[in-house]
Every structure is written in C-alpha cells, then in structure tokens.
From TrEMBL:
Domain named ABC transporter: residues: 2-247
Alphabetically ordered keywords of this record: ATP-binding, Nucleotide-binding
CDD domains tied to this protein: ABC_FeS_Assembly
GO molecular function, one term: ATP binding
InterPro entries documented for this protein: ABC_transporter-like_ATP-bd, FeS-cluster_ATPase_SufC, P-loop_NTPase
Gene3D superfamilies the UniProt entry points to: P-loop containing nucleotide triphosphate hydrolases
Pfam families: ABC_tran
Protein name, entry field: Fe-S cluster assembly ATPase SufC
Family that this chain belongs to: Belongs to the ABC transporter superfamily. Ycf16 family.
Length: 247
C-alpha cells in the first residue's frame, strides 16, 4: 500500500524527519504517537504534498507509484486522503458544492464519469448518516461556525465521499468530546476498515485507539520511528509517558 524508506525532510533549513522508515499494507491501521516536535505532522504534510517542505533524501512508494513525484491533487486522485488537525474554513462555499466538485474532479482525473446532482446527494446523505451529521450542516459554508467536533465529523464525511485508498489522519481526535470521539471512531471504521484500504492515525493519546484499534503502533521521536509494537504499546505510552519509552 505505502512504503516509506529513509525519508529525510526539512523546512526553512531545519531538519524534521531523519531517516524515517515505515510500511503500511492494505487492510492495516497503523498509529503513530510521539512527543511534541517529533515530526508527526511534518510526516503527514510531506505525504500530502504540502508546499514548503524539502525532501532531502528517501523515497515513498504508494500503490506502486512514486508519491513524491506527484502534485498534491494527483496524490488525492491516486487515492490519498489527508485529514487535518485544524480543518480550514472556506466562507462562501457550501460543503455540498465543495464536496461535489472535489469528488468529480478526482473522478475526471481517473477517467470516470461525474456523478449527477441526485446521485451525489444520495451518497452525501449516506456518509453524513454514518457520522450523524445533519444534511443541513452540509448546506452551510465549509466549517464556518462549526464546533471542533462538527469540523472533524464533516471532514470524515468528506473522507467517506471521496472514498480514498489510504487515509492519513493527523490528530483527528483533537477537540472532540466523548460522544464525538466515539462517532468519529465508528465512522473511520465504517469507511476505512476494509481489506483494500489503509490508515495512518497520528495521535498524542490512546483514547481514539479504543475505537479504531490499530494493527501496529509506532513511536516517533526526533524524526524517526524508535519503537513499534501492537496495540498494547499505546497503553504503555499512556501509562509511562513518552520519555520513558523513548529512553
């Protein structure tokens, strides 16, 4: 699905990733945990193609393609989805308009026919139902006036509509209360827990992993993975802290 080899990256001359190696196979959920400044969000941005990050060494192969050679929109059309820690607001553009344009743009890039308005609304209702998001919310401007939990649920609806092969979710649990955390976790499972899909969950805390159980947990420190293990590793981190485990 995705294989990262000896990845080095920096921004403004500051090294962030230092020889990171990671492989996620189809059908797997991997969680990345680590202290602040370890490079977790940088990894997400580099994979998504955010400008400003310089790749100084290494490679990333996604579904048989050189991911780093693709522009961000090409990565999205190839089946990569990036969920942001802080979803942006887009005043003046409704969620329905935004999502339909995004989906049909990707379908066009893959040589597929666009969805009609009726077919799209049927799909949007189905995915909004998974996240218990009222369709009236999707008629509002993207994330404008949304609470933190509503933004994250709307983003998971977007993931469901785009139906990616691989999702990178950067601190999706940030700002969620107990109920929203459960709903988002169940939504991730319903959309992405399939044999032909993969997920990379980036999180500080173990709580999301109660709902989206990872196959592998990695500890990221100083720009590289320093320890990997099963779901029990997240409990160890929660109990002992990052410093003890990294040491």
């Amino acid at each position: 699905m995705i294989e990262i080899t000896n990845l080095h990256a920096e921004i403004d001359g500051k090294k962030i990733l230092n020889g990171l190696n990671l492989r996620v196979d189809a059908g797997q959920v991997h969680a990345i945990m680590g202290p602040n400044g370890a490079g977790k969000s940088t990894l997400a941005y580099v994979l998504g193609g955010r400008p400003g990050y310089e790749i100084t060494a290494g490679s990333v192969v996604f579904d048989g393609q050189d991911l780093l050679a693709l522009d961000p929109h090409e990565r999205a059309a190839a089946g990569l989805f990036l969920g942001f820690q802080y979803p942006v607001e887009i005043p003046g553009v409704s969620n329905v308009q935004f999502l339909r344009e995004a989906l049909n743009s990707q379908r066009k890039a893959r040589g597929e026919d666009p969805l009609s308005g009726g077919d799209f609304l049927k799909l949007a209702r189905e995915k909004a139902g998974l996240l218990r998001l009222d369709m009236d919310m999707l008629k509002r401007p993207v994330n404008v006036g949304f609470s933190g939990g509503e933004k994250k649920r709307a983003e998971m609806v977007q993931m469901g509509i785009l139906d990616p092969k691989f999702a990178i979710l950067d601190e999706t649990d940030s700002g969620l209360d107990i109920d929203a955390l459960r709903i988002v976790g169940e939504g991730i499972n319903a959309i992405m827990r399939r044999p032909d899909k993969g997920v990379l969950l980036i999180t500080h805390y173990q709580r999301l992993l109660d709902y989206v159980r990872p196959d592998v947990v990695h500890v990221l420190a100083a720009g590289r993975i320093v320890k990997s293990g099963g779901a029990e590793l997240a409990l160890e981190l929660e109990r002992d802290g990052y410093e003890a485990v990294v040491a």
